[in-house]
Structure formats: structure tokens, C-alpha cells
Design a protein that fits this description.
single chain; about 290 residues; alpha+beta; 6-stranded antiparallel beta sheet; globular
């Protein structure tokens, strides 16, 4: 009965501190690159990064947000999704957002309200570009933000002028990709092209996109965390997954996706064994957004 839930939960009152991790307003489509890079383990990449900067730069920038992400829509299935990975911890806590009307990612020096408000406005019927424009116009620090997202009618991406290089984005049909503090623009290009060519459902395609971006260089310092978030008419067990601290977060996210799919089936088998006859509704867990 290993996968039937036995749970202890704690709810506490507290105050959330606004954290930094990503927004940018840029509308140029980067050119295709034929550069091929080999994925290097985090510790080795961090050693390379550390050797390339001064000690002061290393100490002050190791946890500066550096991120790449993708937001996407499957119009046929009415599904929205977002995936993101970064060189600091717990990217899923602040960056990706989805609703029944849109998907959005905030990064660089993140203002989480931009992501929450953008997808809420999109669900209410507002265009995603109008929603983001309104939010950024009211933000005195928009130059430090990077955002991207899709709605039912259009896409939007923005890279602020103060985002750490390399920073930029790409807008495609029903998807957007953006990144900052990257090894180069090939990361954004590889992420986009992998999403376009990937098979599978939204979660699979999004993780495939992150894998390609990482293989193209990813965050210049290496990644520490990754997340995928999907909104679909039928919520699935694997539509909200996070790897908050890992040497290989994108690889671990792929493993977590596979295990979550397996766990869904195993929970049903174990519930069958436990009860025999029971209402199917008890297995409709839903998803926390």
C-alpha cells in the first residue's frame, strides 16, 4: 500500500517575502544557431563559471536569478503549460503560473504578482499581451523583469534592459521562450525548436524543451531547480511537479514526471485492493495551482 496517502500537514500563519526571479520585455526573434554544446554536470559547470569571473563577481552573482523558461498552449486540447529551470533554488515557488485562460512565467528579478495577475486576467477574457503591458507599465522596476506567456488569443514576451546577459526571448505560434544569464541565445533557440518538434502531451513536450535548452548551455552557472505546471480540462497527478534543489534538476524533473505517471496508476491498483468497490470520485485529486 506504499502509494496510498498517509499524510501529516502543517498550516501556519506567516509573511511571504517577495523574491527575485524573472521578467523581461523583448520582441525580437533571435536567429537560428547551429552551435552544438555538450551538457556538463552542475559542479563542473560551476567550477568553469567561477574560474571565468572574479571572486567578488562569484560571491555576488552565484544566486542572482538566471533562468530560461517556456509557456505554451495546445489549442486543440485546451491545455496551457509552463516549464522553467534556473541556477538557484525553488524556481517553481515563484516563476510559473497557469489558468484556464493562459500560461505565464516571471523571471529575472521576479514580481510574482505579474504571473498570477496575468493568467487571472487571461482567464477573465483579457488578451495576454494587454494584461502584461498593463502590469509592466505600472511597475517602476520593469527594466529588471523578464516575462513571457500565452493566452487564448496571442503570445507575449518582454526582456527588461537591466536583465543579466545573455538575455532575450523568442515568440512562436502558441508558445514563448525567454531566458536571462544564459550561456547564449542558442539556449532559447534550442528550447523553442525542441518544443516544436517534440511528441507527447503538454508535460512531455515542455520537459523536452528544457532538456534541449540545458544541452545548449542553459544557465551559464548550471541549473539548481526546475518545474513544470499544466492546466488541462482533466487535471492529472503529474501536472504540478517541482525539483527544488538538485545537481541535475531537469533530468530529475524527467524522472519525476515518469514516476508521477506510474504512481497515478499504482494508486488506483492499491485502492482497488483496499476497497474493492468504491466511488471513483475519491481518486479525483485535482491539482494545486
Amino acid at each position: 500500500m506504499s502509494l496510498i496517502y498517509n499524510t501529516i500537514s502543517v498550516v501556519a500563519n506567516g509573511e511571504d517575502a517577495e523574491s527575485g526571479a524573472g521578467l523581461h520585455r523583448v520582441r525580437t526573434v533571435t536567429s537560428r544557431s547551429d552551435t552544438t554544446r555538450v551538457s556538463v554536470p552542475l559542479r563542473e559547470r560551476e567550477s568553469i563559471y567561477r574560474a571565468s569571473v572574479t571572486e567578488t563577481q562569484y560571491r555576488t552573482m552565484r544566486h542572482v536569478p538566471g533562468t530560461f523558461s517556456i509557456a505554451a498552449r495546445d489549442p486543440d486540447a485546451n491545455v496551457f503549460g509552463a516549464a522553467v529551470t534556473t541556477g538557484t533554488v525553488a524556481v517553481g515557488a515563484t516563476c510559473p503560473y497557469v489558468s484556464a485562460g493562459g500560461a505565464a512565467v516571471t523571471q529575472s528579478y521576479t514580481k510574482t504578482e505579474h504571473g498570477r495577475d496575468a493568467v487571472a486576467r487571461a482567464e477573465a477574457g483579457e488578451r495576454i499581451d494587454d494584461a502584461f503591458e498593463t502590469l509592466l507599465d505600472a511597475d517602476d522596476h520593469a527594466a529588471y523583469r523578464q516575462v513571457n506567456g500565452v493566452g487564448a488569443a496571442g503570445e507575449f514576451a518582454f526582456t527588461g534592459g537591466e536583465c543579466v546577459a545573455w538575455a532575450g526571448h523568442r515568440v512562436g505560434d502558441d508558445y514563448t521562450v525567454a531566458g536571462n544569464m544564459l550561456a547564449g541565445e542558442a539556449v532559447v533557440e534550442a528550447t523553442a525548436e525542441a518544443y516544436e518538434s517534440a511528441d507527447g502531451d503538454m508535460a512531455d513536450r515542455l520537459v523536452s524543451a528544457l532538456e534541449a535548452g540545458e544541452a545548449a548551455g542553459g544557465d551559464g552557472r548550471g541549473e539548481m531547480s526546475a518545474a513544470v505546471l499544466v492546466h488541462a480540462p482533466t487535471p492529472e497527478f503529474y501536472h504540478n511537479l517541482r525539483v527544488d534543489l538538485s545537481d541535475e534538476p531537469v533530468s530529475d524533473l524527467r524522472d519525476l514526471l515518469a514516476e508521477a505517471r506510474r504512481a497515478k496508476d499504482q494508486i488506483r491498483r492499491e485502492t482497488d485492493a483496499q476497497f474493492g468497490d468504491y466511488p471513483d470520485e475519491i481518486l479525483d485529486f485535482g491539482v494545486k495551482y
